[in-house]
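BUG: 3D viewer hangs when loading the predicted structure for this chain

Environment: internal workstation, default settings.
Expected: structure renders.
Actual: progress bar stalls at 90%.

Input used:
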Amino acid sequence: MDESPNKGKNAGRRENRAAAMQFLYMREINRGGDAAEALNSFFETKENPREFYAFAEELIAGAEAHILEIDEIIKKSATNWSTDRIAKVDLAILRLAIFELLFREDIPPVVSINEAIDLAKVYSSPEAHRFVNGVLDNVKGSLNRPLRTAKK
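Structure tokens produced before the viewer hung:
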């Protein structure tokens, strides 16, 4: 699923979400260390220039800034699951999507949920998308904004 930057905004955003999820996964696996240094190293491995990943950097910064709050929401929404039991790739996908749902009103919630499900289908186990969808559906129920439109 390699999408080039010239396939439009949605293709670029999808690739940026994948990059953000990969970075969040990497940070979870390799806890600690300097975040800026880790970001620099991460983007050196990417195919496109770093400027292409501006959206990914926004998502990464936001998810990391709100990680404690996001993890509390995951604990409440993933019934009978602690964050330690959730597969690390699924945890990264959930953190990214929940950040978007709670803090990015410029993105319709249904878009964030669908993108998270697609990431789970590509990067996780065959059944992970159902788990991710279930958790995000629980979170979606607590939102006080339209699900299909974004605030301008």
